[in-house]
Amino acid sequence: MNVLIFGGSGFLGSEITELLKQKNINCYSASSNNLNSDYKIDISKIGSFDKLPKNFFNIIINCATILPGKDFLDKENLDNTYKTNILGTQNICNWIKKQSSVDKIVNCSTLVVNSKPWKISITENEESYCHGNHIVYSNSKLFQELLFKTFSEKYSIDLAQVRFSALYGNKMPKVGLLWNLINEIKTTNKIKIKNSKNVSVDFLNVIDASKIILNIINNKKALGIINGASGVETSIYDLGNIIKNIFNNNNKPVLYNKEDQNYTVDRSKVSVDKLKEIIDVSKFISIDEGIKKLLDHNEIKY
Question: 10 Å Cβ neighbour count for 123?
Fold first, then answer.
């Protein structure tokens, strides 16, 4: 088995690459901005694929993506998202079309291709029209899924598309909800969080995400859309208390929650029934254990 990972030097891709190599699987990474990659490939440029060997790879894993974060009216964000998430996907398909060796594609997608608030429990069958501040990212990933699906059906190639929930881990960027709460709890005595009991997240450690991918490439029946989640729903309020209780100090901050009466409940209750057929989710890293690993890796005392 020869595996090629597009975006193999990124947050998720590097974890998958490391795990596959530990399992003695022939694994190669392709990335546009990392000298440690086996192939320096800009997937937005079809000519860049000429660097890859022909008819060599059996499994293609796509982790290359532009993540959300910038305003949906930002032109640079739109251009970059298009080049990577849409044009890059089309180029990957055009390259695979010329390879006789590829048996399976594994695409790393996201649960936010479904518009929030999600149904309870959200399954792999939900289809919705994405809207909100992340429409550029969400719809680019939805288009990506549809492009891979259409391509794989036309050329009879197995396809698995993993819709990941909120990935976190030791090497994650120090931004976003989790890091904001950690930094506030470290430095503040009183923390006010609005609607924290009405918003929940399904956190999945990137280590477990890589194990999901490993099991998918080793399981011929792991096909179609698969929710990549822990199956554990954690409210923002509970998350704050988990972090607060991890820090071992005498002046633990007090969390104040204020609910808006008209606020729409935004839950992340994700069905992992299909995932359980592929991997034992009960062995996933718990959120409190994962946060401790995150703090240890970043040398933060608690």
Answer: 15
Q: Convert the pLDDT of each residue in 241-266 to its tens digit.
A: 999 999 876 667 788 888 888 888 99
What residue type is assigned to position 81 of the chain?
A: T
Per-residue model confidence (pLDDT) at position 131: 78
186-216 as b/e: b if 16+ CB within 10 A: eeeeebebebbebbbbbbbbbbbbbbbbbeb
Query: Regarding beta strands 26-31 and 166-168, do their DSSP bridges make them parallel or antiparallel, or are they unpaired?
Result: unpaired
Task: For the chain, give the number of residues.
Answer: 302
134-157 pLDDT, tens digit per residue, is 888 899 999 999 999 999 999 999
Q: What gap in Å lies between CA 88 and CA 66, rounded to an integer?
A: 11
Q: Quote the CA–CA distance of 185 and 202 in Å, as a whole number.
A: 21
To the question of pTM greater than 0.85 for the whole model, the response is yes
What's the distance, CA 210 to chain centroid? 10
Assess whether the previous peptide bond of 121 is cis (omega < 30° from 0).
yes
54 neighbors 98 (Cβ within 8 angstroms): yes
Q: Beta strands 234-235 and 200-201: pairing type?
A: antiparallel
Residues 6+ apart with CB under 8 A from 153: none
Amino acid found at 43: I
